[in-house]
Amino acid sequence: MSLELLVSGIQQRFGYQTLRRASELIAARTTLSTGMAVVDDLLDGGLLQGVAHNIAGRPTSGVTSLLYRTVASMQAREMPIIYLDMGSLFDPPIAAAMGVQIEKLLLLNETALKHALFLIRTLAEQQLPCLVVLDHPPVLPLAQLKPVLRNSPLTLLTLSPQPLEQMQVVLQCRHREWRLQNGDVAGFSSDLHLLTHPFLRSRQLSMSFTIPKEEAHV
């Protein structure tokens, strides 16, 4: 008797769950595109639902460009966005220039961290598919959020100057060089590093941002 027939007989007699492939215990991963193919390739598809992400980088590293383009990509797919502007750094004109639909963005300015955590927990518990952005939180007690995020369709994305501790996915942008055209700044190049990921090994990728001079501070 073949192994397949033996397994089938056992399942028919004692139930399907008696024997099954171990791979079936691994939950399917849902990825959300950032709208930038080179970043999606680095992340093996994009951001992960139910996971806390961190994009770290200082001004002129490309970190804000990456954030705004991700928000624009999610909006294009009708994903609700809640933007918690903890550092009062959100720039509407630059965000709009990168495709963010300002009129559809739910923005909270200068909210307290405890209020932000309450909102994230509530959205996660309600099983609402959405992207929550935390722009420059002072700290983030991720241990309080991991249990409720684990089985939620909510995606958390944080922005900070330095990598935040205990984040599940960490990307770091580092400025490489200015790009000049006819002696004027036409943009810049950045290196993007994957420091932490629950399913991927850390790796490094060089990516370029080509943006107008007036946006080159992001």
Give an overview in words:
By secondary structure, this protein is an alpha/beta fold. The chain has helices at residues 3-14, 37-42, 63-76, 92-97, 113-125, 146-149; strands at 31-32, 47-48, 52-56, 81-85, 106-109, 130-135, 154-160, 169-181, 184-196, 203-209. Strands 5-4-6-7-3-8-9-10 form an 8-stranded mixed beta sheet, sandwiched between helices. A hairpin with a 2-residue loop joins strand 8 and strand 9 (184-196). The longest helix is centred in the first third of the chain and has 14 residues, at 63-76. It starts with a helix and ends in a 9-residue tail after the last strand.
Strand order of the largest sheet: 5-4-6-7-3-8-9-10
Outline the low-pLDDT stretches. Answer: none
The separation of the N and C termini measures: 66 Å
Q: Work out the number of β strands.
A: 10
Task: Look at the helices and sheets and give the structural class.
Answer: alpha/beta
Shape: globular
Order of helices and strands: HEHEEHEHEHEHEEEE
- β-strand amount: 25-35%
Largest sheet: 8 strands, mixed
Output the number of helix runs: 6
Radius of gyration: 21 Å
Residues in helix, %? 25-40%
Mean pLDDT: 84
Tags for this model:
218 residues, 6 helices, single chain, 25% helix, two-stranded antiparallel ribbon, globular, alpha/beta, 8-stranded mixed sheet
